[in-house]
């Protein structure tokens, strides 16, 4: 266990510099190293079996996701104010991917799962688990971090990278209603028995509460950090960047206690905090802390995932799981994403406007990752019938296929659409 943790820390330090010149991503290397380690007796004692170690897997991946979401929220420079409709248009591609592409993806994968012989609840869960893109593994196609400094224009991010980053930050929380739909189907029966409750509580109320809590926590922390009357509380002046960790834990905890979606609370908190004193260098310092912790945790999880792949995680995988995983990555996500982005799109000279090449790239780069593992572990804890070995094998295969496919193509595709030099 300590060998794996130490190896992850070492790789987190050296891999970014080593791989900067090649079209090879750190996740690709970590999964490969993990698979090789799994063939040796070295990593004995790791909690690899998802059935026996479901709770540990859930909590570790949960932490990885909320740390990544904090970093995403701090990196998004483009203003968004609920009470200012003028700010909504610049996020048009994000709304389209969330409101059109994600439901289409969930429905398509659920149908494929049902075709593969899954019960309805498990098929819906498969769609909900695999639909959201991942803020953890998509760093190669996301914005690099917050722009700061009074002399900089903070709203001049590359449109493609901004779209992928904002989508990954928001769709993790918005996939939860469909995870709950699968849980309710497994525990309560048919949809007509709980349809109104599901829509009112899980689709509307918990989303609103999660966002509202995040905004409230973000405003409170920004007032303290930047404008408190007490010098000891104005941590921004001292550059105490560990506030990022306090903020993500507070936002997530309060969001969950208030029965909202904590993932949305974390993103909303980070974005709200980012909107205060927007040009202050403190945002970059906080983002760096979140990014470093995310990198360490992610590489550890990927190393363990690689070990699990050669220690039995794929034992239940069959041609149906392979077909569904590849269909998601090569057909379902690209088609649904392009349909969502291409129809009545904003013009390229407008904020939020993507040209055809960027639309195709944004549709293609739906990276799957750690969030999918978390959702599956969470649902399995709510109802054991949803923790099928076949689901774990299919999700594990899809994540690895996404890591390889998107990792290899990130550099050449971004270079082709003119986004590489701005990341």
From TrEMBL:
The record's section on InterPro entries has:
Cation/H_exchanger_TM (IPR006153)
- Domain of life where this protein originates: Bacteria
The membrane topology of this protein is: Multi-pass membrane protein
One GO cellular component from the entry? Answer: plasma membrane
Any single biological process term in GO = proton transmembrane transport
Q: Name one Pfam family in it.
A: Na_H_Exchanger
Q: Where in the cell is it found?
A: Cell membrane
Arranged from A to Z, the UniProt key words for this protein are:
Antiport, Ion transport, Membrane, Transmembrane, Transmembrane helix, Transport
* UniProt-recorded name of the protein: NhaP-type Na+/H+ or K+/H+ antiporter
Q: Where is the Cation/H+ exchanger transmembrane domain?
A: 10-415
Q: Can you tell me where the transmembrane regions are?
A: 56-76, 97-116, 174-194, 201-222, 242-273, 293-310, 322-345, 357-378, 390-414
A molecular function (GO) held by this record is: antiporter activity
